[in-house]
Amino acid sequence: MPTHLAPRAVVGWREWVGLPGIGVDWIKAKIDTGAATSSLHAFGLEEFTRDDGLWVRFEVHPRQRTDRGGVRVELPVHDRRTVRSSSGHSEHRVVVLTQLRLLDRVIRAEVTLTRRDSMGFRMLIGREALSQGFLVDPAASFLGGVAPRARRAGRASG
User: Fold this and answer.
1) CA–CA distance, 77 with 62 (Å, rounded to integer)
2) How many distinct helices (H) and strands (E) make up the chain?
3) Is the pLDDT of residue 132 over 80?
4) Rounded distance, CA 127 to CA 133, Å?
5) Quick one: residue 3, left, alpha or beta (phi over 0 = left, psi -120 to 50 = alpha)?
6) Which of 50, 52, 64, 72 sits a CA distance of 20 to 30 A from 142?
7) What pLDDT was estimated at residue 56?
8) What is the pTM of this model?
9) Given the DSSP bridges, would you call strands 105-114 and 90-102 parallel, antiparallel or unpaired?
Protein backbone atom coordinates (compact mmCIF):
# COMPACT_ATOMS: atom_id res chain seq x y z
CA MET A 1 0.00 0.00 0.00
CA PRO A 2 1.45 3.43 -0.87
CA THR A 3 2.57 5.48 2.14
CA HIS A 4 0.00 8.21 1.46
CA LEU A 5 -2.81 5.64 1.84
CA ALA A 6 -1.42 3.83 4.88
CA PRO A 7 -2.78 4.66 8.34
CA ARG A 8 -0.71 7.42 9.87
CA ALA A 9 0.60 7.38 13.42
CA VAL A 10 0.51 10.60 15.43
CA VAL A 11 3.75 11.75 17.09
CA GLY A 12 4.34 14.66 19.45
CA TRP A 13 6.84 17.49 18.94
CA ARG A 14 9.38 15.43 20.90
CA GLU A 15 9.64 11.65 21.22
CA TRP A 16 11.90 8.96 22.60
CA VAL A 17 13.14 6.99 19.59
CA GLY A 18 15.51 4.08 18.98
CA LEU A 19 18.19 3.34 16.41
CA PRO A 20 18.15 -0.47 16.48
CA GLY A 21 20.57 -0.82 13.55
CA ILE A 22 23.37 0.84 15.53
CA GLY A 23 22.62 -0.34 19.07
CA VAL A 24 20.95 2.79 20.48
CA ASP A 25 17.84 1.73 22.39
CA TRP A 26 16.70 5.22 23.41
CA ILE A 27 17.50 8.76 22.39
CA LYS A 28 15.34 11.85 22.88
CA ALA A 29 14.49 13.46 19.55
CA LYS A 30 12.82 16.65 18.42
CA ILE A 31 10.31 16.19 15.62
CA ASP A 32 11.25 18.90 13.14
CA THR A 33 8.99 19.43 10.13
CA GLY A 34 11.26 22.30 9.08
CA ALA A 35 14.14 19.89 8.43
CA ALA A 36 14.16 17.77 5.28
CA THR A 37 16.50 15.11 6.67
CA SER A 38 16.94 13.70 10.15
CA SER A 39 20.11 14.62 12.04
CA LEU A 40 22.13 12.82 14.72
CA HIS A 41 24.68 14.20 17.18
CA ALA A 42 27.88 12.32 16.27
CA PHE A 43 31.40 12.58 17.73
CA GLY A 44 34.77 11.82 16.18
CA LEU A 45 33.65 11.38 12.58
CA GLU A 46 36.29 9.53 10.61
CA GLU A 47 35.80 8.49 7.00
CA PHE A 48 37.60 5.41 5.67
CA THR A 49 37.52 3.08 2.69
CA ARG A 50 36.54 -0.57 2.67
CA ASP A 51 36.48 -2.89 -0.33
CA ASP A 52 32.85 -1.96 -0.98
CA GLY A 53 33.27 1.82 -0.75
CA LEU A 54 33.38 4.78 1.59
CA TRP A 55 32.40 4.30 5.25
CA VAL A 56 32.22 6.54 8.31
CA ARG A 57 33.14 5.72 11.91
CA PHE A 58 31.68 7.80 14.73
CA GLU A 59 30.43 7.72 18.29
CA VAL A 60 26.89 8.44 19.48
CA HIS A 61 26.24 9.73 23.00
CA PRO A 62 22.49 9.12 23.32
CA ARG A 63 22.09 10.74 26.75
CA GLN A 64 21.96 14.51 27.17
CA ARG A 65 24.78 16.17 29.12
CA THR A 66 26.93 13.01 29.42
CA ASP A 67 29.15 10.79 27.31
CA ARG A 68 28.27 7.72 29.40
CA GLY A 69 26.65 4.99 27.37
CA GLY A 70 28.38 6.06 24.15
CA VAL A 71 28.09 3.71 21.17
CA ARG A 72 30.82 3.29 18.52
CA VAL A 73 29.34 2.94 15.03
CA GLU A 74 30.58 2.15 11.51
CA LEU A 75 28.23 2.62 8.53
CA PRO A 76 28.57 3.04 4.78
CA VAL A 77 28.39 6.63 3.56
CA HIS A 78 25.07 6.94 1.72
CA ASP A 79 25.45 10.52 0.47
CA ARG A 80 26.77 14.00 1.26
CA ARG A 81 24.51 17.00 1.62
CA THR A 82 24.79 20.70 2.26
CA VAL A 83 22.43 21.46 5.14
CA ARG A 84 21.35 24.98 6.02
CA SER A 85 20.42 25.63 9.66
CA SER A 86 17.53 27.85 10.74
CA SER A 87 20.12 30.55 11.45
CA GLY A 88 21.30 30.40 7.81
CA HIS A 89 24.62 28.61 8.47
CA SER A 90 25.50 25.98 5.80
CA GLU A 91 27.37 22.78 6.61
CA HIS A 92 28.46 19.90 4.38
CA ARG A 93 27.43 16.65 6.11
CA VAL A 94 27.80 12.91 5.69
CA VAL A 95 24.49 11.04 5.29
CA VAL A 96 23.98 7.45 6.45
CA LEU A 97 21.01 5.10 6.20
CA THR A 98 19.85 3.46 9.42
CA GLN A 99 16.81 1.96 11.07
CA LEU A 100 14.73 4.35 13.16
CA ARG A 101 12.14 3.19 15.70
CA LEU A 102 9.44 5.83 16.11
CA LEU A 103 6.46 4.82 18.24
CA ASP A 104 6.04 1.11 17.47
CA ARG A 105 7.22 1.36 13.86
CA VAL A 106 10.70 0.74 12.47
CA ILE A 107 11.54 2.62 9.28
CA ARG A 108 14.68 3.18 7.25
CA ALA A 109 15.81 6.79 7.42
CA GLU A 110 18.47 9.04 5.96
CA VAL A 111 20.37 10.69 8.80
CA THR A 112 22.98 13.43 8.59
CA LEU A 113 25.84 13.35 11.10
CA THR A 114 26.91 16.53 12.89
CA ARG A 115 27.94 17.96 16.25
CA ARG A 116 24.88 19.22 18.13
CA ASP A 117 26.67 20.28 21.35
CA SER A 118 24.73 23.51 21.71
CA MET A 119 21.37 21.99 20.79
CA GLY A 120 18.72 20.75 23.21
CA PHE A 121 18.23 17.39 21.48
CA ARG A 122 20.76 14.80 20.33
CA MET A 123 18.56 13.95 17.35
CA LEU A 124 16.13 15.65 14.98
CA ILE A 125 13.55 13.69 12.99
CA GLY A 126 12.91 15.40 9.64
CA ARG A 127 10.26 15.25 6.93
CA GLU A 128 11.85 12.40 4.96
CA ALA A 129 11.35 10.05 7.91
CA LEU A 130 7.98 11.53 8.90
CA SER A 131 6.63 11.04 5.37
CA GLN A 132 6.78 7.29 6.00
CA GLY A 133 3.44 7.32 7.82
CA PHE A 134 3.51 9.94 10.59
CA LEU A 135 1.53 13.06 11.47
CA VAL A 136 2.75 15.58 14.04
CA ASP A 137 0.66 16.96 16.91
CA PRO A 138 2.63 20.05 17.99
CA ALA A 139 0.74 20.22 21.30
CA ALA A 140 1.77 16.68 22.35
CA SER A 141 4.96 15.12 23.68
CA PHE A 142 6.16 11.54 24.09
CA LEU A 143 3.08 9.87 22.58
CA GLY A 144 5.21 6.74 22.14
CA GLY A 145 6.00 6.66 25.87
CA VAL A 146 9.18 7.53 27.69
CA ALA A 147 12.49 5.76 28.02
CA PRO A 148 12.96 3.71 31.18
CA ARG A 149 13.75 5.93 34.18
CA ALA A 150 17.32 4.61 34.49
CA ARG A 151 17.98 5.57 30.87
CA ARG A 152 16.62 9.09 31.33
CA ALA A 153 18.81 9.50 34.44
CA GLY A 154 21.91 8.50 32.46
CA ARG A 155 22.51 5.18 34.21
CA ALA A 156 23.60 2.12 32.28
CA SER A 157 20.58 -0.10 32.83
CA GLY A 158 17.27 0.15 30.98
Assistant:
1) 21
2) 2, 11
3) yes
4) 10
5) alpha
6) 72
7) 97
8) 0.85
9) antiparallel
